[in-house]
Amino acid sequence: MNNIAHFLDFELDTGAVCFYPRPETEILVEKAVDLLSAGHGRGLPRRIMDIGTGCGSIAISLTKYLPSSKIVALDISDSALRIAGENALKYAAEDRIDFIKSDLFEGIDRNQYKEFFDLIISNPPYISLGEFQSLPAKTRDDPYMALSGGRDGMNFYRKIKNEAPFFLKKNGLLLLEVGYDQSETVKAILASSGDFFRMESYKDYSGIDRILKAEKWTNF
What pLDDT is recorded for position 98? Predict the structure, then answer.
């Protein structure tokens, strides 16, 4: 697979170690921009957490389309963070993104970032164990840990459900990419926390519910 990914207005190096961003994730970014801009104007500062940044496609894009935003971009892979940093430097976005090594939320200072973020955004691994074996060979070229969501594909959504409310402001947004036929299951997972409301799905170019938005309503 070519290591250069074309994503929105960017050409990003994946270094053969990062997930190769797909067109569906472009919709995730576009929806984030629409939601954060609606009724408020694009000049307001926004604090955003990008979970599993990979090559930095989401974070770097958001610095352009939300020019006052500050982003904390997390990844468990040192190699991915290095490549993401190089991509950010290429597009002069490095001063607005803090790249942090973290397994989901584990590397984040809970005191510093409690109720800090306007948006938590992620395209987490969501391929189930059974589905992985049936993936096209081209897709299986991506790093396994960037694809596998555990036995049922839901591991990361459960962890995000448990931790995201602590870091989101009241009425902050959680925006997730989900797999085929997963939207209702992920909605149920989020609803079970009691911390989210106003959940809504958005379709991809094939008419599949691909993006899920939820709003935090509780205070900690």
Answer: 97
